[in-house]
Amino acid sequence: MAKFEKELPKELIKQFEKLSDNTTTMFEEMTKSGAEVVKKNVIANLPGNLKESNFKNNISLTKSYKTPSDGGVNTKVIIKGYFKNENGIKTPAPLVANLFEYGRSNSPFPKEPFFRKSFKRKQIEKAMLDVQKEYIDE
């Protein structure tokens, strides 16, 4: 019976070892870069009324974290804090975003979605793959 043995090149083995040591860090940076793309899109897609105000200061990213259920790595784009309108009234920023995103049937606020249309898959994947290439090419 024929026998075949082949060793992997030492460079490839070193690259695999380096990737296995830095996997969590790489995933954290990948999700963070994808979330930054979404954050920029959210700020760019803000409706006119919100764009003119300081609402963009209420949009931020969470720290990268591991989910306990499946061990995945996530970074979220969140809307937090309070928003002060031109009359000086403070309102929770997530409530203001929800009003613009989904509208309200009994008031003069029509639906102006800006958050949902900010998730552009190709842009997010490109940003994440760029970070992955940095780790692989090192």
Keywords:
138 residues, two-stranded antiparallel sheet, 5 helices, 12% strand
Outline the fold blueprint.
Elements lengths: L9 H12 L1 H22 L3 H5 L6 E3 L3 E2 L6 E2 L2 E3 L2 E3 L5 E3 H10 L18 H17 L1
Antiparallel strand pairs: 1-4, 2-3, 5-6
Could you explain how this protein is built, in words?
The protein is mainly α. It contains 5 helices and 6 strands, in the order αααββββββαα. It has helices at 10-21, 23-44, 48-52, 93-102, 121-137; strands at residues 59-61, 65-66, 73-74, 77-79, 82-84, 90-92. The strands form 3 sheets. Strands 1-4 form a two-stranded antiparallel sheet. The chain has a two-stranded antiparallel sheet with strand order 2-3. The protein is elongated, with a radius of gyration of 22 Å. The relative contact order is 0.16. The model has no long low-confidence stretch (mean pLDDT 88).
Following the backbone from N to C, one meets helices and strands in this order, namely: HHHEEEEEEHH
Q: Estimate the strand proportion.
A: 5-15%
Number of helices, where a helix is a run of at least 4 consecutive DSSP H or I residues: 5
* Shape type: elongated
Strand elements, count = 6
Determine the structural class based on helices, strands and strand pairing.
mainly alpha
Q: How large, in whole angstroms, is the Cα Rg?
A: 22 Å
**Helix share bin:** 40-55%
Q: Order of strands side by side in the largest beta sheet?
A: 1-4
**How would you sum up the major sheet?**
2 strands, antiparallel
Distance between the termini: 41 Å
Provide the residue-averaged pLDDT.
88
Low-confidence stretches: none
